[in-house]
Amino acid sequence: MLMYNKFFCYILITEMTTVRPQKIHSIHLLRGVAIIMIVFSHCLGVFKNSHLIANSYLFSFLNLFAFNFTTFFVLIAGFLFQHLTYKYDVKGYYLSKFKTVVCPYISVSIFCFLYFHYQYLSRLPVFSLTEPSSSMSIVKMMLTGTQLLPLWFMPMIIIIFAISPLLYKWSKKSLIVIGLVSMFWVVMFTKPDYKQPLLNLLHYGPVYLTGMMIKQNYEKIMKLVKENLALVIFFFGLCLFIPFAYRYVDYLGVERLYYDTLQKIILFILALYFLDGLNHRNNEGGIYKFFSYLANVSFPIYFIHQIIVLFLEQRLINSSFGYIIKTDNGQLASVGAISFLICTLTISIFIANTIKFVFKDKAKYLIGGNR
C-alpha cells in the first residue's frame, strides 16, 4: 500500500510539472489589435502635410494614439516567452525563430531589394573597398532593417531571440524589480531613430522584460489594477495627454521625457484586465473571431502591409484624388487613413492567403507563419 501511494504521488507530481499552461485568449486578441494599430499608424503616415497635426486635434490624437503599438508586440513576445518557459529548448527555439522570423525577413528583404532598391543598387559596384558597393549596402540594410519601414523591428527582435538563454535564466527569478525599473527606463531613455538597432534594443529590451514580468505576476497585477482601477486609468490618461498637450503648448517642463512607450505598457495592462474574462470561457462571438483571425495572420500582415501601403499611395498620387495626400483638412485625412487601413488589411490578408495556398507549409519561410 505504501509503495502504491508513493507511485501515485509520483505520477501526480509528474503530471503537475508537465501540464501545459492554459491558453491566454486575451493575449491572442491583443495581437490582433496590435497589428491593426501598427498598420493604421503607417496609413496615417501617408498624409504628409506638415500642418495636419497643428490644424486638427482629431488627426493629432489618432497619430499619437496609433504610434508605437510595436510596444504591444514586444510585450506580447515577452509575456509568451515567460508563459512557455516550460517547453524552452535552446536548439529548438533557435530553429523555430530561424524558420519563422529570419527566413521571412530575408525573403521579404530580397523582394524589397529588387522592387524598391534595384535602380540604386544596380548603379553601384558589386564590391569595393574604397566606395559604396551594392553588397555592403545590402548588408547594411539587413543589419538595420532600413530596406522597408516596418523592418527596422527585425534586427532588434532577432537580437532579443538570440539572447534567449539569458532571458530563460532570468525567467526563473523574480522580475518585479526589473519590470519596475524597465518602466522607468523607457521614460528616460527615449525611443531612438529606427535605423539604430542596438539603441532600439536598449529601449525595447526592457519592454520585453516588462512583458515577462507581467506574465510572472499576472494574478497580482490584475488584483492591483482592480483595486486601483481609477488611478491606473488616470495614469494612462496622463501619459496620453502630456505628449498631446506639448504639441500645442510651448513649454510644459516635461519635454525631455518620453511617455509613448510607458503609455502603451499601461494600456496593455488595462487591456489585459478588461479582457481577462475571455480566459475563463469559450469565445464564439463574431468580434472575438474577427480579432482572433487577425491575430493568426498578424505576422504575414506585418511583413507585407507596408508594400501595400506604398502601392496604394502611388496609385492615389497618380489618380484625380492625389490632392488628398497633401490636404490640411484633418477630418479628410483621418477618413482617408481609415480607408487606407481597410484596403491595406484586406489586400494583405488576400495576398497572405494566396501565398499560403500556393506554397502550403513553406509559406512561413516567405512571409511568416500563422499563429
UniProtKB/TrEMBL annotation:
<feature type="transmembrane region" description="Helical">
    <location>
        <begin position="102"/>
        <end position="121"/>
    </location>
</feature>
<feature type="transmembrane region" description="Helical">
    <location>
        <begin position="175"/>
        <end position="192"/>
    </location>
</feature>
<keyword id="KW-0812">Transmembrane</keyword>
<feature type="domain" description="Acyltransferase 3">
    <location>
        <begin position="24"/>
        <end position="351"/>
    </location>
</feature>
<dbReference type="GO" id="GO:0016413">
    <property type="term" value="F:O-acetyltransferase activity"/>
</dbReference>
<feature type="transmembrane region" description="Helical">
    <location>
        <begin position="29"/>
        <end position="47"/>
    </location>
</feature>
<feature type="transmembrane region" description="Helical">
    <location>
        <begin position="141"/>
        <end position="163"/>
    </location>
</feature>
<dbReference type="InterPro" id="IPR002656">
    <property type="entry name" value="Acyl_transf_3_dom"/>
</dbReference>
<dbReference type="Pfam" id="PF01757">
    <property type="entry name" value="Acyl_transf_3"/>
</dbReference>
<keyword id="KW-1133">Transmembrane helix</keyword>
<keyword id="KW-1003">Cell membrane</keyword>
<dbReference type="GO" id="GO:0005886">
    <property type="term" value="C:plasma membrane"/>
</dbReference>
<comment type="similarity">
    <text>Belongs to the acyltransferase 3 family.</text>
</comment>
<feature type="transmembrane region" description="Helical">
    <location>
        <begin position="332"/>
        <end position="355"/>
    </location>
</feature>
<feature type="transmembrane region" description="Helical">
    <location>
        <begin position="261"/>
        <end position="278"/>
    </location>
</feature>
<dbReference type="GO" id="GO:0009246">
    <property type="term" value="P:enterobacterial common antigen biosynthetic process"/>
</dbReference>
<feature type="transmembrane region" description="Helical">
    <location>
        <begin position="59"/>
        <end position="81"/>
    </location>
</feature>
<feature type="transmembrane region" description="Helical">
    <location>
        <begin position="229"/>
        <end position="249"/>
    </location>
</feature>
<protein>
    <recommendedName>
        <fullName>Acyltransferase 3 domain-containing protein</fullName>
    </recommendedName>
</protein>
<feature type="transmembrane region" description="Helical">
    <location>
        <begin position="290"/>
        <end position="312"/>
    </location>
</feature>
<keyword id="KW-0472">Membrane</keyword>
